[in-house]
Write a structure and sequence with these properties.
The complex is a heterodimer of chains A (254) and B (211). With 254 residues, chain A is of the alpha+beta class. Chain A has two domains: 5-116, Ubiquitin-like (UB roll), CATH 3.10.20; 123-251, Alpha-helical ferredoxin (Fumarate Reductase Iron-sulfur Protein, Chain B, domain 2, Orthogonal Bundle). Chain A is built from eight helices and seven strands. Chain A has helices spanning 38-51, 123-132, 152-162, 169-173, 180-191, 200-214, 224-228, 236-251; strands at residues 5-14, 23-33, 73-75, 78-79, 101-106, 114-116, 119-120. The longest helix of chain A is centred in the C-terminal third of the chain and has 16 residues, at 236-251. Chain B is mainly alpha-helical and 211 residues long. Chain B has one domain (2-68, 91-207). Classes of the chains: A alpha+beta (254), B mainly alpha (211). The interface between A and B is large, with 43 and 34 residues.
Protein backbone atom coordinates (compact mmCIF):
# COMPACT_ATOMS: atom_id res chain seq x y z
CA UNK A 1 0.00 0.00 0.00
CA UNK A 2 1.23 3.45 -0.81
CA UNK A 3 2.52 5.65 1.96
CA UNK A 4 0.65 8.87 2.70
CA UNK A 5 0.43 11.51 5.38
CA UNK A 6 -2.70 12.82 7.00
CA UNK A 7 -4.07 15.56 9.21
CA UNK A 8 -6.47 14.39 11.89
CA UNK A 9 -8.73 15.72 14.60
CA UNK A 10 -8.58 13.80 17.86
CA UNK A 11 -11.21 13.92 20.56
CA UNK A 12 -9.51 12.42 23.60
CA UNK A 13 -10.87 11.74 27.09
CA UNK A 14 -8.89 13.70 29.67
CA UNK A 15 -9.29 13.02 33.37
CA UNK A 16 -6.82 14.20 36.03
CA UNK A 17 -7.40 11.39 38.52
CA UNK A 18 -9.97 8.86 39.76
CA UNK A 19 -12.11 11.55 41.36
CA UNK A 20 -12.03 14.09 38.53
CA UNK A 21 -15.16 14.13 36.38
CA UNK A 22 -13.15 14.35 33.16
CA UNK A 23 -14.19 15.42 29.69
CA UNK A 24 -13.21 15.38 26.03
CA UNK A 25 -10.52 17.61 24.60
CA UNK A 26 -9.95 18.18 20.92
CA UNK A 27 -6.48 18.12 19.35
CA UNK A 28 -5.33 18.57 15.77
CA UNK A 29 -2.39 16.52 14.60
CA UNK A 30 -0.73 17.03 11.24
CA UNK A 31 1.63 15.14 8.94
CA UNK A 32 0.87 11.77 10.50
CA UNK A 33 2.45 8.96 8.50
CA UNK A 34 0.22 6.12 7.37
CA UNK A 35 2.92 3.71 8.55
CA UNK A 36 2.92 4.95 12.15
CA UNK A 37 1.22 2.89 14.81
CA UNK A 38 -1.71 4.44 16.66
CA UNK A 39 0.42 4.78 19.80
CA UNK A 40 3.25 6.43 17.86
CA UNK A 41 0.73 9.01 16.71
CA UNK A 42 -0.04 9.61 20.41
CA UNK A 43 3.72 9.88 21.10
CA UNK A 44 3.97 12.63 18.48
CA UNK A 45 1.03 14.47 20.04
CA UNK A 46 2.45 14.04 23.56
CA UNK A 47 5.87 15.40 22.54
CA UNK A 48 4.15 18.46 21.21
CA UNK A 49 2.09 18.84 24.39
CA UNK A 50 5.25 18.58 26.52
CA UNK A 51 6.97 21.22 24.37
CA UNK A 52 3.96 23.47 24.83
CA UNK A 53 4.24 22.96 28.59
CA UNK A 54 1.00 21.00 28.77
CA UNK A 55 0.26 17.71 30.51
CA UNK A 56 0.78 14.80 28.09
CA UNK A 57 -2.03 12.29 27.61
CA UNK A 58 -1.59 9.27 29.88
CA UNK A 59 -2.14 5.92 28.17
CA UNK A 60 -1.13 2.34 28.94
CA UNK A 61 1.47 0.61 26.77
CA UNK A 62 4.34 -1.78 27.19
CA UNK A 63 5.56 -4.24 24.56
CA UNK A 64 4.05 -2.49 21.53
CA UNK A 65 4.07 -5.78 19.65
CA UNK A 66 0.58 -6.98 20.52
CA UNK A 67 1.33 -9.53 23.21
CA UNK A 68 1.41 -7.79 26.59
CA UNK A 69 -2.22 -6.66 26.84
CA UNK A 70 -1.41 -3.22 28.22
CA UNK A 71 -2.75 -0.89 25.53
CA UNK A 72 -6.40 -0.22 26.01
CA UNK A 73 -8.00 2.49 23.93
CA UNK A 74 -11.63 2.55 22.81
CA UNK A 75 -11.30 4.10 19.36
CA UNK A 76 -14.30 5.34 17.36
CA UNK A 77 -16.73 3.07 19.20
CA UNK A 78 -14.62 -0.08 19.20
CA UNK A 79 -12.01 -1.40 21.67
CA UNK A 80 -8.56 -1.43 19.99
CA UNK A 81 -9.97 0.40 16.95
CA UNK A 82 -11.38 -0.66 13.61
CA UNK A 83 -9.14 -3.62 12.71
CA UNK A 84 -10.05 -7.15 13.69
CA UNK A 85 -7.71 -9.25 15.82
CA UNK A 86 -5.46 -6.28 16.53
CA UNK A 87 -4.29 -4.49 19.66
CA UNK A 88 -4.14 -0.68 19.70
CA UNK A 89 -0.33 -0.77 19.41
CA UNK A 90 -0.59 -2.88 16.27
CA UNK A 91 -3.26 -0.66 14.77
CA UNK A 92 -1.61 1.44 12.10
CA UNK A 93 -2.58 4.86 10.88
CA UNK A 94 -3.33 3.50 7.41
CA UNK A 95 -6.62 2.46 8.98
CA UNK A 96 -7.57 6.15 8.76
CA UNK A 97 -7.90 8.78 6.03
CA UNK A 98 -6.81 12.41 5.84
CA UNK A 99 -9.28 14.65 7.63
CA UNK A 100 -10.78 11.93 9.86
CA UNK A 101 -12.00 12.72 13.36
CA UNK A 102 -11.07 10.02 15.86
CA UNK A 103 -12.73 9.72 19.26
CA UNK A 104 -10.56 8.00 21.87
CA UNK A 105 -12.06 6.88 25.18
CA UNK A 106 -10.83 4.73 28.06
CA UNK A 107 -12.35 1.27 28.79
CA UNK A 108 -15.66 1.92 30.49
CA UNK A 109 -16.68 -0.39 33.34
CA UNK A 110 -17.11 0.19 37.05
CA UNK A 111 -14.71 -2.71 37.63
CA UNK A 112 -12.08 -0.80 35.58
CA UNK A 113 -11.97 2.67 37.19
CA UNK A 114 -10.16 5.36 35.22
CA UNK A 115 -6.85 6.19 36.89
CA UNK A 116 -5.90 9.02 34.55
CA UNK A 117 -6.90 10.02 31.01
CA UNK A 118 -6.95 6.73 29.05
CA UNK A 119 -5.40 4.58 31.79
CA UNK A 120 -7.74 2.29 33.70
CA UNK A 121 -7.08 0.09 36.70
CA UNK A 122 -7.32 -3.53 35.53
CA UNK A 123 -6.04 -5.13 38.73
CA UNK A 124 -9.46 -6.82 39.06
CA UNK A 125 -8.19 -9.26 36.41
CA UNK A 126 -5.11 -10.01 38.52
CA UNK A 127 -7.28 -10.82 41.53
CA UNK A 128 -9.47 -13.12 39.41
CA UNK A 129 -6.33 -14.99 38.29
CA UNK A 130 -5.12 -15.18 41.87
CA UNK A 131 -8.45 -16.69 42.90
CA UNK A 132 -7.95 -19.78 40.76
CA UNK A 133 -5.89 -19.30 37.62
CA UNK A 134 -2.99 -21.41 38.81
CA UNK A 135 -1.89 -25.05 38.94
CA UNK A 136 -0.02 -27.12 41.50
CA UNK A 137 3.54 -27.89 40.45
CA UNK A 138 6.32 -29.54 42.43
CA UNK A 139 9.12 -27.17 43.18
CA UNK A 140 12.69 -28.09 42.33
CA UNK A 141 13.91 -28.88 38.86
CA UNK A 142 11.67 -27.85 35.99
CA UNK A 143 9.47 -30.75 34.91
CA UNK A 144 10.03 -32.10 31.41
CA UNK A 145 7.50 -30.29 29.23
CA UNK A 146 6.54 -33.45 27.37
CA UNK A 147 6.31 -35.82 30.34
CA UNK A 148 2.51 -36.06 30.07
CA UNK A 149 1.12 -36.92 26.64
CA UNK A 150 -1.56 -34.45 25.51
CA UNK A 151 -3.91 -35.05 22.63
CA UNK A 152 -3.30 -32.67 19.72
CA UNK A 153 -6.78 -31.20 19.57
CA UNK A 154 -6.86 -30.45 23.31
CA UNK A 155 -3.41 -28.91 23.12
CA UNK A 156 -4.48 -26.68 20.22
CA UNK A 157 -7.74 -25.59 21.86
CA UNK A 158 -5.98 -24.93 25.17
CA UNK A 159 -3.33 -22.92 23.34
CA UNK A 160 -5.95 -20.84 21.53
CA UNK A 161 -7.55 -20.03 24.90
CA UNK A 162 -4.17 -19.34 26.49
CA UNK A 163 -3.57 -16.67 23.85
CA UNK A 164 -5.71 -14.31 25.97
CA UNK A 165 -3.52 -11.38 27.00
CA UNK A 166 -5.99 -10.04 29.57
CA UNK A 167 -6.32 -6.63 27.92
CA UNK A 168 -9.94 -6.19 28.96
CA UNK A 169 -11.34 -5.36 25.52
CA UNK A 170 -14.07 -7.97 26.11
CA UNK A 171 -15.25 -6.07 29.19
CA UNK A 172 -15.04 -2.75 27.35
CA UNK A 173 -17.14 -4.08 24.47
CA UNK A 174 -19.75 -5.94 26.52
CA UNK A 175 -23.01 -4.13 27.13
CA UNK A 176 -23.06 -5.77 30.58
CA UNK A 177 -19.35 -5.11 31.33
CA UNK A 178 -18.96 -8.86 31.72
CA UNK A 179 -15.51 -10.39 32.08
CA UNK A 180 -16.68 -13.83 31.07
CA UNK A 181 -14.66 -14.13 27.85
CA UNK A 182 -11.45 -13.43 29.80
CA UNK A 183 -12.48 -15.78 32.59
CA UNK A 184 -13.57 -18.53 30.22
CA UNK A 185 -10.27 -18.33 28.34
CA UNK A 186 -8.33 -18.79 31.57
CA UNK A 187 -10.57 -21.61 32.81
CA UNK A 188 -10.65 -23.39 29.44
CA UNK A 189 -6.90 -23.17 29.01
CA UNK A 190 -6.36 -25.06 32.27
CA UNK A 191 -9.42 -27.33 32.09
CA UNK A 192 -8.28 -28.73 28.74
CA UNK A 193 -4.88 -29.80 30.02
CA UNK A 194 -4.05 -32.58 32.48
CA UNK A 195 -1.92 -30.13 34.47
CA UNK A 196 -5.07 -28.20 35.33
CA UNK A 197 -6.87 -31.21 36.78
CA UNK A 198 -6.01 -31.00 40.51
CA UNK A 199 -7.86 -27.68 40.99
CA UNK A 200 -10.37 -28.16 38.20
CA UNK A 201 -13.50 -28.17 40.36
CA UNK A 202 -12.61 -25.34 42.71
CA UNK A 203 -10.96 -23.12 40.10
CA UNK A 204 -14.06 -22.19 38.15
CA UNK A 205 -16.19 -21.59 41.26
CA UNK A 206 -13.54 -19.46 42.97
CA UNK A 207 -12.78 -17.41 39.87
CA UNK A 208 -16.45 -16.69 39.18
CA UNK A 209 -16.99 -15.70 42.82
CA UNK A 210 -14.07 -13.27 42.55
CA UNK A 211 -15.40 -11.90 39.25
CA UNK A 212 -18.76 -11.15 40.86
CA UNK A 213 -17.01 -9.50 43.79
CA UNK A 214 -15.09 -7.23 41.42
CA UNK A 215 -18.34 -5.88 40.00
CA UNK A 216 -18.38 -7.30 36.48
CA UNK A 217 -21.76 -7.97 34.84
CA UNK A 218 -23.12 -11.26 33.59
CA UNK A 219 -22.96 -12.71 30.09
CA UNK A 220 -25.93 -12.48 27.72
CA UNK A 221 -24.02 -13.97 24.78
CA UNK A 222 -24.25 -11.00 22.41
CA UNK A 223 -20.84 -11.89 20.97
CA UNK A 224 -19.39 -8.35 21.09
CA UNK A 225 -16.45 -9.64 23.17
CA UNK A 226 -15.43 -12.21 20.60
CA UNK A 227 -15.70 -9.65 17.80
CA UNK A 228 -13.25 -7.21 19.41
CA UNK A 229 -10.83 -9.65 21.03
CA UNK A 230 -7.34 -8.92 19.65
CA UNK A 231 -6.44 -12.58 20.20
CA UNK A 232 -9.70 -13.83 18.67
CA UNK A 233 -10.67 -15.88 21.71
CA UNK A 234 -13.79 -17.86 20.82
CA UNK A 235 -17.06 -17.26 22.67
CA UNK A 236 -17.40 -21.06 22.73
CA UNK A 237 -15.04 -20.87 25.70
CA UNK A 238 -17.90 -19.27 27.66
CA UNK A 239 -20.11 -22.30 26.94
CA UNK A 240 -17.25 -24.51 28.12
CA UNK A 241 -16.96 -22.37 31.26
CA UNK A 242 -20.69 -22.88 31.90
CA UNK A 243 -20.23 -26.63 31.51
CA UNK A 244 -17.25 -26.53 33.90
CA UNK A 245 -19.32 -24.53 36.37
CA UNK A 246 -22.21 -26.98 36.18
CA UNK A 247 -19.84 -29.92 36.54
CA UNK A 248 -18.24 -28.35 39.63
CA UNK A 249 -21.60 -27.53 41.14
CA UNK A 250 -22.93 -31.05 40.64
CA UNK A 251 -19.84 -32.98 41.63
CA UNK A 252 -17.89 -30.78 44.06
CA UNK A 253 -16.59 -32.71 47.05
CA UNK A 254 -17.15 -29.97 49.57
CA UNK B 1 -32.38 -18.08 32.17
CA UNK B 2 -31.30 -20.84 29.84
CA UNK B 3 -33.13 -23.56 31.73
CA UNK B 4 -36.44 -21.67 31.90
CA UNK B 5 -35.88 -20.55 28.30
CA UNK B 6 -35.66 -24.14 27.05
CA UNK B 7 -38.75 -25.02 29.11
CA UNK B 8 -40.70 -22.15 27.52
CA UNK B 9 -39.48 -23.22 24.07
CA UNK B 10 -40.95 -26.68 24.76
CA UNK B 11 -44.23 -25.01 25.70
CA UNK B 12 -44.23 -23.08 22.42
CA UNK B 13 -44.03 -26.37 20.51
CA UNK B 14 -47.09 -27.72 22.33
CA UNK B 15 -48.96 -24.43 21.93
CA UNK B 16 -48.31 -24.06 18.21
CA UNK B 17 -49.22 -27.71 17.53
CA UNK B 18 -52.52 -27.49 19.41
CA UNK B 19 -53.39 -24.18 17.78
CA UNK B 20 -52.61 -25.56 14.34
CA UNK B 21 -55.78 -27.65 14.76
CA UNK B 22 -57.73 -24.54 13.69
CA UNK B 23 -56.68 -25.35 10.15
CA UNK B 24 -58.26 -28.82 10.27
CA UNK B 25 -61.21 -27.51 8.19
CA UNK B 26 -63.77 -28.97 10.61
CA UNK B 27 -65.14 -25.67 11.91
CA UNK B 28 -62.92 -25.83 14.97
CA UNK B 29 -63.99 -29.23 16.26
CA UNK B 30 -60.50 -30.70 16.58
CA UNK B 31 -59.21 -27.47 18.12
CA UNK B 32 -62.03 -27.22 20.66
CA UNK B 33 -61.59 -30.86 21.69
CA UNK B 34 -57.82 -30.38 22.07
CA UNK B 35 -58.37 -27.24 24.16
CA UNK B 36 -60.92 -29.15 26.24
CA UNK B 37 -58.42 -31.94 26.84
CA UNK B 38 -55.81 -29.46 28.06
CA UNK B 39 -58.29 -27.67 30.30
CA UNK B 40 -60.04 -30.70 31.77
CA UNK B 41 -57.26 -33.23 32.32
CA UNK B 42 -55.16 -33.35 35.48
CA UNK B 43 -51.68 -33.69 33.99
CA UNK B 44 -51.89 -30.65 31.67
CA UNK B 45 -53.39 -28.60 34.50
CA UNK B 46 -50.47 -29.47 36.78
CA UNK B 47 -48.05 -28.69 33.96
CA UNK B 48 -49.87 -25.40 33.54
CA UNK B 49 -48.87 -24.40 37.07
CA UNK B 50 -45.29 -25.27 36.19
CA UNK B 51 -45.64 -23.18 33.06
CA UNK B 52 -46.71 -20.09 34.98
CA UNK B 53 -43.87 -20.67 37.41
CA UNK B 54 -41.48 -20.98 34.47
CA UNK B 55 -42.72 -17.72 32.96
CA UNK B 56 -42.46 -15.88 36.28
CA UNK B 57 -38.95 -17.16 36.96
CA UNK B 58 -37.81 -16.28 33.45
CA UNK B 59 -39.29 -12.77 33.64
CA UNK B 60 -38.23 -11.89 37.19
CA UNK B 61 -34.70 -13.22 36.74
CA UNK B 62 -34.38 -11.40 33.42
CA UNK B 63 -35.34 -8.03 34.88
CA UNK B 64 -33.08 -8.53 37.89
CA UNK B 65 -30.13 -9.42 35.66
CA UNK B 66 -30.84 -6.56 33.27
CA UNK B 67 -30.94 -4.04 36.12
CA UNK B 68 -27.77 -5.43 37.70
CA UNK B 69 -25.94 -5.43 34.38
CA UNK B 70 -26.98 -1.86 33.61
CA UNK B 71 -25.39 -0.69 36.85
CA UNK B 72 -21.99 -2.13 35.93
CA UNK B 73 -21.04 0.80 33.69
CA UNK B 74 -21.49 4.13 35.45
CA UNK B 75 -20.05 6.30 32.67
CA UNK B 76 -21.05 5.30 29.16
CA UNK B 77 -19.26 5.75 25.84
CA UNK B 78 -19.44 8.84 23.67
CA UNK B 79 -19.42 6.65 20.55
CA UNK B 80 -21.54 3.55 21.13
CA UNK B 81 -20.42 0.24 19.65
CA UNK B 82 -23.78 -0.32 18.02
CA UNK B 83 -23.81 -3.24 15.62
CA UNK B 84 -20.03 -3.56 15.46
CA UNK B 85 -19.74 -7.10 16.79
CA UNK B 86 -23.25 -8.01 17.94
CA UNK B 87 -26.72 -8.33 16.50
CA UNK B 88 -29.21 -5.68 17.64
CA UNK B 89 -31.70 -8.24 18.87
CA UNK B 90 -29.12 -9.87 21.12
CA UNK B 91 -28.62 -6.53 22.88
CA UNK B 92 -32.32 -5.72 23.11
CA UNK B 93 -33.51 -9.03 24.62
CA UNK B 94 -34.93 -7.13 27.58
CA UNK B 95 -37.05 -4.90 25.36
CA UNK B 96 -38.12 -7.76 23.11
CA UNK B 97 -39.05 -9.78 26.18
CA UNK B 98 -41.02 -6.82 27.52
CA UNK B 99 -43.00 -6.64 24.27
CA UNK B 100 -43.69 -10.36 24.51
CA UNK B 101 -44.76 -9.89 28.14
CA UNK B 102 -47.18 -7.05 27.26
CA UNK B 103 -48.58 -9.19 24.47
CA UNK B 104 -48.88 -12.08 26.90
CA UNK B 105 -50.96 -10.04 29.35
CA UNK B 106 -53.43 -9.16 26.57
CA UNK B 107 -53.36 -12.71 25.24
CA UNK B 108 -54.05 -14.34 28.64
CA UNK B 109 -56.87 -11.90 29.31
CA UNK B 110 -58.43 -12.61 25.92
CA UNK B 111 -58.27 -16.41 25.88
CA UNK B 112 -56.95 -18.09 28.98
CA UNK B 113 -59.09 -16.23 31.51
CA UNK B 114 -62.40 -16.76 29.63
CA UNK B 115 -61.69 -20.44 29.04
CA UNK B 116 -60.77 -21.13 32.67
CA UNK B 117 -62.84 -18.77 34.79
CA UNK B 118 -65.78 -17.33 32.92
CA UNK B 119 -68.56 -19.04 31.11
CA UNK B 120 -67.93 -19.53 27.46
CA UNK B 121 -70.48 -20.62 24.90
CA UNK B 122 -70.49 -24.37 24.66
CA UNK B 123 -70.78 -26.58 21.67
CA UNK B 124 -71.77 -30.26 21.56
CA UNK B 125 -70.15 -32.82 19.28
CA UNK B 126 -71.21 -36.32 18.15
CA UNK B 127 -70.21 -38.13 21.33
CA UNK B 128 -72.48 -35.83 23.33
CA UNK B 129 -69.76 -34.06 25.29
CA UNK B 130 -70.22 -30.34 25.60
CA UNK B 131 -67.01 -28.33 25.32
CA UNK B 132 -66.12 -24.62 25.34
CA UNK B 133 -66.29 -23.08 21.92
CA UNK B 134 -62.86 -21.42 22.07
CA UNK B 135 -62.76 -21.47 18.27
CA UNK B 136 -65.73 -19.11 18.12
CA UNK B 137 -64.06 -16.80 20.64
CA UNK B 138 -60.94 -16.74 18.44
CA UNK B 139 -62.97 -15.93 15.34
CA UNK B 140 -64.78 -13.16 17.17
CA UNK B 141 -61.62 -11.70 18.73
CA UNK B 142 -59.76 -11.56 15.45
CA UNK B 143 -62.42 -9.58 13.66
CA UNK B 144 -60.87 -6.43 15.18
CA UNK B 145 -57.91 -5.13 13.16
CA UNK B 146 -56.07 -3.67 16.19
CA UNK B 147 -56.05 -7.09 17.86
CA UNK B 148 -54.56 -8.66 14.73
CA UNK B 149 -51.87 -5.98 14.61
CA UNK B 150 -51.02 -6.42 18.30
CA UNK B 151 -50.69 -10.18 17.73
CA UNK B 152 -48.44 -9.68 14.71
CA UNK B 153 -46.17 -7.33 16.71
CA UNK B 154 -46.12 -9.89 19.52
CA UNK B 155 -45.09 -12.64 17.09
CA UNK B 156 -42.36 -10.46 15.60
CA UNK B 157 -40.96 -9.69 19.06
CA UNK B 158 -41.10 -13.40 19.89
CA UNK B 159 -39.28 -14.27 16.65
CA UNK B 160 -36.34 -11.97 17.40
CA UNK B 161 -36.34 -12.98 21.08
CA UNK B 162 -36.01 -16.62 20.01
CA UNK B 163 -33.45 -15.82 17.30
CA UNK B 164 -30.99 -14.95 20.06
CA UNK B 165 -32.51 -16.84 22.97
CA UNK B 166 -32.66 -20.30 21.41
CA UNK B 167 -28.94 -20.74 20.84
CA UNK B 168 -27.97 -18.63 23.86
CA UNK B 169 -29.98 -20.92 26.16
CA UNK B 170 -27.97 -23.95 25.11
CA UNK B 171 -24.71 -22.04 25.59
CA UNK B 172 -25.83 -21.18 29.12
CA UNK B 173 -26.46 -24.85 29.74
CA UNK B 174 -22.89 -25.55 28.74
CA UNK B 175 -23.15 -27.05 25.26
CA UNK B 176 -19.78 -26.32 23.69
CA UNK B 177 -19.29 -29.12 21.22
CA UNK B 178 -18.81 -27.17 18.00
CA UNK B 179 -20.79 -29.62 15.87
CA UNK B 180 -23.76 -29.57 18.23
CA UNK B 181 -23.57 -25.78 18.47
CA UNK B 182 -23.81 -25.55 14.68
CA UNK B 183 -26.84 -27.85 14.67
CA UNK B 184 -28.46 -25.90 17.54
CA UNK B 185 -27.84 -22.60 15.72
CA UNK B 186 -29.48 -23.94 12.57
CA UNK B 187 -32.46 -25.37 14.46
CA UNK B 188 -32.71 -22.10 16.40
CA UNK B 189 -32.98 -20.00 13.26
CA UNK B 190 -35.57 -22.36 11.77
CA UNK B 191 -37.57 -22.49 14.99
CA UNK B 192 -37.49 -18.68 15.41
CA UNK B 193 -38.94 -18.23 11.94
CA UNK B 194 -41.38 -21.13 11.63
CA UNK B 195 -43.06 -21.05 15.05
CA UNK B 196 -43.79 -17.27 15.24
CA UNK B 197 -44.83 -17.36 11.56
CA UNK B 198 -47.30 -20.15 12.30
CA UNK B 199 -48.64 -18.17 15.26
CA UNK B 200 -48.88 -15.03 13.13
CA UNK B 201 -50.85 -16.88 10.45
CA UNK B 202 -53.59 -17.72 12.98
CA UNK B 203 -55.07 -14.24 13.51
CA UNK B 204 -54.49 -13.53 9.80
CA UNK B 205 -56.41 -16.68 8.79
CA UNK B 206 -59.22 -15.73 11.12
CA UNK B 207 -59.34 -12.10 10.04
CA UNK B 208 -59.58 -12.97 6.37
CA UNK B 209 -62.06 -15.79 7.07
CA UNK B 210 -59.78 -18.48 5.67
CA UNK B 211 -60.98 -20.84 8.39
Amino acid sequence: MEHYTMNLTLKVWRQKNKKDRGGFETYSVSDISSEMSFLEMFDVLNERLVKEGKEPIAFDHDCREGICGMCSMYINGRPHGPWEGTTTCQLHMRAFRDGDTIVVEPWRANAFPVVKDLVVDRSAFDRIIQAGGYISVNTGNAVDANAIPIEKNSADTAFAAAACIGCGACVAACKNSSALLFLSAKVSHLALLPQGNPERKTRVVDMIAQMDKEGFGSCTATGACEAVCPKEISITNIARLNAEYGRSGLTADK
Amino acid sequence: MGLTGVFLILFLIVHVCVNACIWAEDDGQMFNLAAHFLGATVVPRVLEIGLFAGFLLHIIQAYMLELQNKRKRGVGYQVPMGNKGSKWYSRYMGWLGTFVLLFLVIHIKQFWVPSRFTDLDEVAYENGAKVHNLFALMKETFTQPWVVIVYLVGCLALAYHLMHGFQSAFRSLGVYNSRYLKIINAIGVGFSIIVPLAFAMMPISMYFNWV
